[in-house]
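The data are passed on as follows:
___
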Amino acid sequence: MSVQGAQGFVEDPRNDTLLVYVNGDLVPKAEAKVSVFDSGFVLGDGVWDAFRLVNGTLVFMVEHLERLCDGARSIDLDIGLTEKDLADALYRTVDANTMRDGAHLRLMVTRGVKKTPNQDPRYAVGPATVVITAEYKQPDPQVKIAGLQLFTSTFRCSGPDVFDLRLNSHSRLNLIQALIQALKAGAHEALMLDPHGFVASCNSTNFFMARDGEVWTSTGRYNFMGITRRHIIKLCERNDIPVRQADFTLAQCYSADEAFVTGTFGGVTRVSRIDGRTIGRSDGPGALTQRLAVLYAELVAAAAARGRP
């Protein structure tokens, strides 16, 4: 089955027989299980992060682990492992699956098994649950060429006092509801506004647009703390590409010269339509989108060339 979208990928039969890291053990994918009393299953009580394997190296791994551990500390979740321990577990999973390139890993941590299914964290009866999946996943090249179609959802990105997107929490229902709206409308991804009506991000990626040679993205107050987003902003600054982080409206998106989204899995992906309106060229990515995609690919290649830390 091929599913197009920001999270769509090319099917790979090698994924059927991979090993999954579950609390220190590497088990066949079909046997990888956690308890029905696990905090993640019961409540979505946990944090996660994603990693790309490029030429034997998990690129930007330190930044991703810092984000994961910061999130865990924020919700008073004791992982029971240091960042080095987690790095070793990630590479152990890669090596056990004899992976070298083109893989996407997801590290998931929950508060662990609970005595009873309730919200109170004091009912956790054991250590944190730590799971790592590693799969051969490449973005669908047709989406890269044709671009993503976005639909503006009625569900809003929330402030940190309601639900802090910076935590990379397992709880994702609000974002899933937004995505369902987009899918029902025939789009690939949901564009989401903040509580004040300004554009915030998409349901699984960070949103950028270009106007008059300048790259725009939101303030970040209501965003994922995107690592790819951070690198794109820095690449703009280093390469004399004007970039602003500011409030802007949906109407301004409709009249943009270009638009794209960023994420760990897809890197830089063109947006071709928003709410049925064509954005930029109809035959491919605009000049700034292409340039930033190349600059980002070069940055990833340089990070991979440095090898394992």
